[in-house]
């Protein structure tokens, strides 16, 4: 027997096996026969295959959640640096505060690593403190 690829196996003895659309055949017993049965089976299996692929794409693994959490934390640190530089240069920090607030409102991915969770909690707290300080200064003015 020789395997030639997705078309299936070929017998070297000259006897040809009957083929069906799915690569195997089921005995016909009282249902649709021949090509109609094969078409119904292949159409149902292709829909199930597409559904399974779409479901797998929606599943987020732990590595992707960790990457997103780290990316969010890094973004918050960048916004805090922008605010710090704006204030040190004597500029109005309102645009930097707006970007910080927008970054802080982003959904935080849940990560099971307690060390990463602790660092991200500290970053979120620092950003919230800066936002509260700005709100207090705005209320005084």
UniProtKB/TrEMBL annotation:
<dbReference type="InterPro" id="IPR019704">
    <property type="entry name" value="Flagellar_assmbl_FliX_class2"/>
</dbReference>
<feature type="compositionally biased region" description="Low complexity">
    <location>
        <begin position="20"/>
        <end position="44"/>
    </location>
</feature>
<protein>
    <recommendedName>
        <fullName>Flagellar assembly regulator FliX</fullName>
    </recommendedName>
</protein>
<dbReference type="Pfam" id="PF10768">
    <property type="entry name" value="FliX"/>
</dbReference>
<dbReference type="GO" id="GO:0044781">
    <property type="term" value="P:bacterial-type flagellum organization"/>
</dbReference>
<feature type="region of interest" description="Disordered">
    <location>
        <begin position="1"/>
        <end position="44"/>
    </location>
</feature>
């Amino acid at each position: 027997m020789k395997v030639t690829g997705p078309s299936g196996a070929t017998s070297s003895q000259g006897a040809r096996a009957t083929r069906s659309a799915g690569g195997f055949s089921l005995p016909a017993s009282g249902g649709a026969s021949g090509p109609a049965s094969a078409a119904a089976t292949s159409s149902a299996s292709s829909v199930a295959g597409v559904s399974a692929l779409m479901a797998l794409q929606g599943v987020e693994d732990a590595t992707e959640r960790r990457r997103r959490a780290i990316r969010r934390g890094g973004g918050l640190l960048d916004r805090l640096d922008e605010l710090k530089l704006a204030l040190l240069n004597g500029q109005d920090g309102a645009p930097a505060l707006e970007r910080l607030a927008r970054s802080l409102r982003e959904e935080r991915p849940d990560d099971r690593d307690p060390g990463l969770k602790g660092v991200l909690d500290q970053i979120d707290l620092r950003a919230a403190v800066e936002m509260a300080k700005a709100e207090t200064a705005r209320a005084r003015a």
